[in-house]
Write a structure and sequence with these properties.
Strand order of the largest sheet: 1-2
Order of helices and strands: EEHHHHH
Strand content: 5-15%
Radius of gyration: 16 Å
């Protein structure tokens, strides 16, 4: 993990239902100077070996997500409900946080 001076964290304590123990999760901001490079993503590289078209679509979506890292993290910080939604349904959370983001590459 790359720790940076302005690292922010969102912490969540929750339980999935009353019969399960509570668990905690931490979401850490990413150093804006060292955002991940989509061209070096191992999952996309593996997908490209079997479905290059789908890999390219996923690459476009991932690049958009990386480019919107800061607005998404700001949204995540603003309400506990946002963090809970992200844990339970990441795609719905991304759609709510970044409504203009084109996620059609993930639809398949």
């Amino acid at each position: 993990m790359n720790i940076h001076n302005n690292m922010r964290a969102v912490q969540l304590q929750m339980r999935l239902d009353e019969n399960q123990p509570a668990f905690g999760m931490n979401f850490l901001s990413v150093d804006p100077e060292n955002l991940p490079n989509v061209d070096d993503n191992a999952i996309i590289a593996q997908l490209a070996t079997t479905d290059p078209t789908k890999a390219e679509k996923v690459k476009v979506v991932l690049a958009q997500l990386i480019a919107n890292n800061e607005p998404f993290f700001q949204w995540l910080e603003t309400a506990p409900e946002h963090t809970i939604l992200f844990v339970k349904d990441p795609v719905a959370a991304i759609k709510q946080a970044l409504p203009n983001l084109d996620l059609s590459g993930l639809a398949e």
